[in-house]
Amino acid sequence: MSSTKLSTPSSISVDDIQAWAASGESEVLEFKLTTGQKEEAAKAVCGMLNGRGGRVIFGIDPKGNVVGQQVSDKTLEDIAATLQKIKPEVQPHIDRTPISEDRSAITVTAESGRFRPYLYRGLAYRRMGATTQPMTFDEQQKCLLEQAFGSARWESERSPLTIDDTDAQLLSNVLSSGVDRQRIDASFLRGGGSQKLLLGLGLLQENKLNHAGAVLFGQNTAIELHYLQCVVKLAVFRGTTTADLAEVRQVYGNAFTILREAESFISSRLRINSKLTPGQMRRQDIPELPGLAVREALANAVAHREYQSASGSLGVKIFDDRVEIASIGTLHFGLIPDELYAPHQAQPWNPKIAQVLYRSGIVESLGTGTLRMVDHTREAGLPAPTITTTSQAVQVTFTRPGFFSPMLTALKLSAEQLRIIDAVAHQQPATRSGLVAETGLTERGVRSILSGLRDMSLVALRGERKAARWHLAGITRRAYGFLEI
Fold first, then answer.
1. Which residues pair with 218 in a beta bridge?
2. What separation in angstroms does the CA of 214 have from each of 168, 195, 300, 484?
3. Residue 466 has what DSSP assignment?
């Protein structure tokens, strides 16, 4: 019949089906009333194979009720035959779950595919929220690039630059920093010139640098001549839109030059706040945004961006309310922005570049940069940076002090509601009296606002009587960088 796996008896219970039905359709869940919709279901399975995987369940009506259908062996064979039209060939798992005496639900489970893009009847599909849509040409090309990742990476191809085009002093400084941080054995530096060092880092091929070596250690004059994509575009705008440009610059150079120039540009154009520590005469200068968080964002952009296109770049935009850091390229291997706020597997798109940045100490550890960005901003009492993607770029946005995260302003909350949320974030867990003291609102006003925010699932009360404390909940936890609980 088919290579599709049919489970007997079912490994999926009625309770499982009911729980999925209650959660609603999503990127990884699709409901169909009957197998008369198997063609549309196959497109959804194709989209799931091209994404994070998922399940298509037959026997759930449009209102989310589990109603099942009459199922025979031929019903299952027809589904399997339809799924065989997905190419390359796949083996989704088909489960039949009895709902009543004569009705069953059917679940088709597909893991994220290894050989993307998958096509159904000659067309590739993707999941976008709870919908299935044809993939664009660019999305299919991205899948093919990921498929070839292990054997044909741009960073491993030969560069037009030679050893003579290497910034030898930069190479020595970077490796010495790696030794100081105990990420490079000191013996690696003994008795070897640039050729030995570059070979040891996997950045040299027959006396010529590969692209990774050029991007990391090429002299800036050679970089500007041969690598137009190795540029950072820096801009400051008055206000919160791009309508009023105050300053613009662009700098060409190797990865370390770009990191240094971008970091310096941001820090020199943000405010420095001063604070006197009680009992001490010394003033403490506090940067408007935590420098370590900004450095992590810049390092991630350099390590993971798409370098292949000569028109690519890294961009920094400073507005009155935010700082944006954007890099050409997108997230790969099915990763989505939400997953970057929790521990996740490191899969750098440019592993040679990422490894050198790690060894040099620019990157603390692979796969945790976004988590540290969140930690640093939260420790500074600021909302967590937001990470957004388009088909062409990944952007990290830091909210400047005195403003609120776009995740919160999009909710159209009142100024008082935002003040309460901000105070809960700073005190978490917060007492009502503590919120009164921080916001200057009356106790009655705080009580009323908290009640409304709780009804909106933006704050939650835990504990009873004197032990009761207020916490962020839902989207507000995300805005301030607290993991869901």
1. 166
2. 12, 13, 18, 41
3. G
Q: State both tokens at 112.
A: 């994220």
pLDDT, tens digit, for every residue of 378-418? 888 788 888 888 878 889 999 888 788 878 888 888 888 98
For the chain, the C-alpha Rg in angstroms (whole number) is 27
Residue 438 and residue 423 in contact, taking contact as beta carbons nearer than 8 Å = yes
Which residue reads 């690598």 in tokens? 227
Render pLDDT for 36-61 as a digit per residue (tens, 0 to 9). Answer: 999 999 999 999 998 889 999 999 99
Q: Which CA distances in Å does 386 have to 114, 259, 329, 374?
A: 29, 20, 17, 9
Tokens representing 157 are 């191809």
Tokens (6 digits) for 478 = 């995300």
CB atoms within 10 A of CB 404: 19
Both tokens of 285, joined, read: 């200068």
- The model's pLDDT over 319-356, given as tens digits with 9 standing for 90+, comes to 998 999 999 888 776 677 776 767 766 677 788 888 88
C-alpha dihedral over 284, 285, 288, 291, to 10 degrees?
A: -100
3-state secondary structure at position 286: strand
Average pLDDT for 57-74: 93
Whether the pLDDT of residue 151 is over 80: the answer is: no
Return the exposure string of 410-426: e unless at least 16 CB atoms fall within 10 Å of the residue's CB, then b.
ebebeeebbbbbbbbbe
Kindly write down the DSSP assignment for every residue of 191-215, as one continuous string.
Answer: T--HHHHHHHTT-EETTEEEHHHHH
Spell out the long-range contacts of 269-274 with Cβ–Cβ below 8 A and sequence spacing 24 or more: 269/236, 269/318, 270/318, 270/323, 270/400, 273/401
* Count of other CB atoms within 10 angstroms of residue 20: 22
The span from the CA of 30 to the CA of 20, in Å, is 10
pLDDT at 273: 66
Q: Distance between CA 422 and CA 449 in Å, rounded? A: 13
Alpha carbon distance 417, 440 (integer Å): 13
Neighbours of 159 (CB within 10 A): 22
Q: Give the model's pLDDT for residue 1.
A: 38
Residue pair 381/482 in contact by the 8 Å Cβ criterion:
no
| Per-residue pLDDT band at 483 (split at 50, 70, 90) | low
SS3 assignment, position 10? coil
- Whether pTM > 0.70 for this model: the answer is no
If 0-12 CB within 10 Å is exposed, 13-18 middle and 19+ buried, where does residue 267 land? middle
Pair type for strands 104-110 and 54-58: antiparallel
Contact 38, 47 (CB under 8 A): no
Distance CA 395, CA 296 (A): 13
Output phi, psi for 152, to 5 deg. Answer: -140, 65
